[in-house]
């Protein structure tokens, strides 16, 4: 079974690095990914963070489109709950016109930051529309299909590109899988956030069973993708040592929400800013770590178990050269099995 490989880069900022240096690393990674034959290169959205600099994926993608030629580029993902679907559609229509056939619009469900940044993004009024409704609006704007009964009938999200950016829904639960299925969208499960095997398996089963398609064109949108964290080193032991530095920290809020952050400090800040009682749970990060051959075998097994169409790789290492080398080694490991970038 062939495998399609892609990259999610979170624009990490290493110790002593500037934001300018961190972005230069992202540019180098995108260009290297294109040279190596990765299928797509996505960037993330995080706010008010000391660890990553990518707070505006739309702006970063425009620059990356000018610095690459073939590779697909996308958001992993835009946090739609903060924004107007109309404005997101305009942004990605501009991108799709600048880089025809190369832009993906990944939509995330997490806040992408702590409560203070959420309040700043949403202003005093916040957001009252559920994500499901916002997704429908976004799709309608992207494809210029506003219904006559809609209060904004006649409105267009210009420019109108020949090939609108396809929407991908990102998630970590069966509920996000069901939302993607009902909306008829490709689905990306973030295993590096939720590594519970039973949940991953159940999410993909539900997605496949409940995927809604009324035509062959809609059926073609059914894609099951697994996003996971990987570290490749010369030996299994060295890779495990590097991976041991990273933790998945969950904060459980009294109101019922559970979120994953990358440090105890971030979890405590989230709890304080939320104004709710909370508890913190610390686990080893969900990282596939090992030598080139070990990682290859583990990834092939995950593809077999979950029957996914594609793997999106993210490397959490802050050291840029180690991070770059992991991506190179993953692609080398799959030189015979991977599907060439289209």
From TrEMBL:
Native organism: Brevibacillus borstelensis AK1
Database matches in PANTHER family: LUCIFERASE-LIKE MONOOXYGENASE
Gene Ontology CC annotation, any one: cytosol
Family stated for the protein in its record: To bacterial alkanal monooxygenase alpha and beta chains.
The protein's name in its UniProt record: Luciferase-like domain-containing protein
Pfam families per the UniProt record, alphabetical: Bac_luciferase (PF00296)
Record-linked Gene3D superfamilies: Luciferase-like domain
Classification via SUPFAM superfamilies: Bacterial luciferase-like
Any GO molecular function: oxidoreductase activity, acting on paired donors, with incorporation or reduction of molecular oxygen
Protein origin, superkingdom: Bacteria
Luciferase-like domain: residues covered: 4-304
């Amino acid at each position: 079974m062939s495998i399609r490989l892609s990259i999610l880069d979170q624009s990490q900022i290493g110790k002593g690095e500037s934001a300018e240096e961190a972005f230069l690393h992202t540019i180098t990674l995108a260009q290297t990914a294109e040279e190596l034959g990765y299928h797509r290169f996505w960037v993330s959205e995080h706010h008010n963070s000391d660890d990553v600099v990518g707070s505006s994926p739309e702006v970063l993608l425009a620059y990356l489109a000018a610095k690459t030629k073939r590779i697909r580029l996308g958001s992993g993902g835009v946090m739609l709950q903060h924004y107007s679907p109309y404005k997101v559609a305009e942004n990605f229509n501009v991108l799709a016109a600048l880089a025809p056939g190369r832009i993906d619009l990944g939509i995330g469900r997490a806040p992408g930051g702590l409560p203070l940044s959420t309040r700043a993004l949403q202003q005093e009024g916040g957001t009252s529309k559920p994500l499901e409704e916002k997704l429908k609006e976004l799709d309608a704007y992207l494809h210029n299909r506003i219904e006559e009964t809609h209060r904004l009938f006649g409105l267009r999200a210009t420019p109108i590109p020949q090939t609108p950016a396809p929407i991908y829904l990102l998630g970590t639960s069966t509920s996000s899988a069901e939302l993607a299925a009902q909306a008829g969208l490709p689905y990306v499960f973030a295993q590096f956030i939720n590594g519970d095997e039973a949940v991953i398996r159940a999410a993909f089963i539900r997605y496949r069973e409940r995927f809604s398609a009324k035509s062959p064109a809609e059926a073609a949108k059914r894609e099951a993708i697994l996003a996971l964290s990987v570290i490749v080193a010369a030996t299994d032991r060295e890779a495990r040592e590097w991976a041991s530095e990273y933790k998945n920290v969950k904060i459980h809020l009294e109101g019922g929400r559970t979120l994953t952050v990358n440090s105890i400090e971030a979890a405590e800040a989230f709890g304080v800013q939320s104004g709710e009682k909370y508890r913190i749970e610390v686990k080893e990060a969900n990282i596939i770590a090992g030598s080139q051959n070990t990682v290859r075998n583990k990834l092939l097994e995950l593809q077999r178990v979950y029957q996914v169409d594609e793997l999106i790789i993210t490397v959490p290492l802050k050291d840029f050269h180690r991070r770059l080398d992991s991506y190179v080694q993953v692609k080398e490991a799959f030189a015979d099995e991977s599907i060439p970038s289209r």
